[in-house]
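In the lab's daily routine, each protein ends up as an entry in a very long ledger. A line of letters takes care of the sequence, but it says nothing directly about the fold. The three-dimensional part falls to structure tokens, numbers that each stand for a local backbone shape. The outcome of that step, for a single protein, is printed below.
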Amino acid sequence: MSHLKASRIIDVDYYAGGDGKVVTSVDVYKSIRALQLEGVTSQRAAAKILGISRNTVKKYWMGDAVPWDRKAYQREASVVTPEVKQFIEHCLDTDAAEGVRKQHHTARRIYNRLVEERGYTGSESAIRAAVHEAKAERKENEVFIPLRFAPGQALQIDWGEATVKLAGEKVKVNLFCARMSYSCAPYVIAYWRQNLESFLDAIIHTLNYFGGVPRSIIFDNARVAVKSGFGAHAAAQDDYSKLAAHYGFQPVFCNPASGNEKGLVENLVGYIRRNVCVPLPQVDSLEDLNTKLLEQCAKYLNHKIDGRSQEVGKMLAEDQAHLHPLPKYVLDISKKAYPKVNRYSTVLFDTNYYSVPCKYRGKDTTVKAYPNRVEIWINGLLVATHDRCMGRKQESLDLRHYLPILERKGRAIRYARPVLNAVPAEFLNWMEKQHLNSKQMVELLEQCLTDGYLAVMQRDLPTPDMSIAKNDVPVLSVDLSQYDKLYERKGAAS
């Protein structure tokens, strides 16, 4: 990559290197950050090493700008001869050598090949049993190589599930578990979902917790991290590649069915389930659960692992001494969308509706979705923040966004969903008995949001304003004198 044909990488995603290979902007950014982390102090020298312009190096040197930001049964054994078994072993050996997970021999494919290529006349079930036996024997005879890591070399990460009692109700949470490969120091954080936003957010929290960046992060082949392939042949998801480039670590993916390659963190998942989630923890929020998890991680630092001479906390200090420093700027990992505000003053994101102040109807927005919250921006201004809906076809309506229009349409207060979602029927019934106009009801609703409906109901209200409300139909005064005269005449005539 030392002879790039393009000097400005911000305007393009791919360039041709001197050897004809395709070089992405993320590759260039990663190389610049790597040189800075390795101690190259001269931007001019870095530009010369990489064969790119000094301006490009200057732009990305500190990590405050990124190139991707711009303005997807055995039957008859006799038929399974030694020659058939040899053919089965050959097929399994070929699969292992090719290393393509979704293109491997199934038992049916081996049977069909035996029929077509070797004239096999036995049953398919016999071949299925023989293939199953061959795979089981390979697993039994597998030998695992003991691994050893240097301080600051690697971090192992994994996901696990657990059940907790949230406000008295059993719910399932996803546990992101991380462990330093040298010291075995743990970090665990809970999320509602195992989506891409949670995955990237969890890594950032982990690196901040340990105070630096290891040279590599070891993970399995989950879809949140891998775009294609697996193990040594895996290609990282674009957003994961961007995160790795910004923080300066190398993503490493485990080989299939090789849990030993990240055995430390897999053991951590079980440890957390046994020591934090038994009995079922009773928490009021996800934040409360994460506090308990963090406390357990801190306690583990005093633990001494078999075969180690020091406590985990002391070895963690060695780990931290060899970590790369954190970048100055935190990478924005939000999932973005650009919906327009509809006539109900809401925007649609991921099948769910989120409200904005009613004055923004018809405006274009930028939605930034984080693991547990959604931000809505208009022209660079943050106009609304909501807890992220975890289901589908839900709505999050902030009553404050609708108060100005409710003041003009007082008759809608009793039936408006933003009102019904925010305050109980008890409060609405009480408010109706106070003979208030629209403006006064809106003022009480606003107070209710701040102080709680019980506190508002206990206050001494001012004398009810019996004046005509803005949306009430005025009753005109009528002159009844002529009617009285006619009535008197009728009475006299009778």
